[in-house]
Specification:
globular; alpha+beta; four-stranded antiparallel sheet
Length: 86
């Protein structure tokens, strides 16, 4: 089981947040699926996922997506995904 805390941040304030939880084991090969599910719950576009994003999440337990990571214009400063350690 794992949990990911997704936050949409603008001007240093959390606009929207969600706790994504799955009962199966976390795998990095399915990270895009987790990201897409979180973005769907937050009702925002899904950003482009690069290898560096996955490496940052693996090393620091957090990843940040800024507006240039999205194909569509967004009205927030960043999307942050944090691993919730159980």
């Amino acid at each position: 089981m794992f949990r990911i805390w997704g936050k949409v941040i603008k001007d240093g304030k959390i606009l929207n947040q969600v706790t994504y939880e799955r009962d199966d084991k976390f795998t990095y090969s399915q990270f895009f699926e987790y990201l897409a599910d979180i973005c769907e719950e937050l009702d925002i576009a899904t950003p482009v996922l690069l290898k560096t994003h996955i490496f940052n999440y693996a090393k620091f337990n957090t990843v940040r997506f800024i507006p240039r990571d999205f194909a569509e214009p967004v009205d927030f400063d960043k999307l942050v995904l944090d691993n919730i350690v159980l």
